[in-house]
């Protein structure tokens, strides 16, 4: 796929990049090369290939997913202007 100068100008505008008129042909050429490379990547057969998180085979560290209250109620409420019975106290706004 080939990118023309008008498309390069529009891409630069959408990306909020100031590009001089003299540099637009070079930008169009670079964008065309990127798209050509992406088309080449689409030709690669990746059926049966699992996604990788790293180039070295390793298992990710995992921890148990345990729900806790954080045990920090006192520290959190210490900064509250008004706290009652372990909760934030706020003025009543609905009558």
TrEMBL record:
Keyword terms: ATP-binding, Ligase, Nucleotide-binding, Protein biosynthesis, Transferase
Keyword Ligase: yes
Nucleotide-binding in keyword set: yes
Pfam families, sorted: GatC
GO MF annotations in UniProt: asparaginyl-tRNA synthase (glutamine-hydrolyzing) activity; ATP binding; glutaminyl-tRNA synthase (glutamine-hydrolyzing) activity; transferase activity
EC number: 6.3.5.-
Stored Gene3D superfamilies: Glu-tRNAGln amidotransferase C subunit, N-terminal domain
Biological process (GO), any one: regulation of translational fidelity
InterPro entries reported in the protein's UniProt record: Asp/Glu-ADT_sf_sub_c, GatC
Enzyme class: ligase
Catalytic activity field: L-aspartyl-tRNA(Asn) + L-glutamine + ATP + H2O = L-asparaginyl-tRNA(Asn) + L-glutamate + ADP + phosphate + 2 H(+); L-glutamyl-tRNA(Gln) + L-glutamine + ATP + H2O = L-glutaminyl-tRNA(Gln) + L-glutamate + ADP + phosphate + H(+)
Annotated family: Belongs to the GatC family.
Subunit structure: Heterotrimer of A, B and C subunits.
Job of this protein: Allows the formation of correctly charged Asn-tRNA(Asn) or Gln-tRNA(Gln) through the transamidation of misacylated Asp-tRNA(Asn) or Glu-tRNA(Gln) in organisms which lack either or both of asparaginyl-tRNA or glutaminyl-tRNA synthetases. The reaction takes place in the presence of glutamine and ATP through an activated phospho-Asp-tRNA(Asn) or phospho-Glu-tRNA(Gln).
Name of the molecule in the record: Aspartyl/glutamyl-tRNA(Asn/Gln) amidotransferase subunit C
Organism: Actibacterium lipolyticum
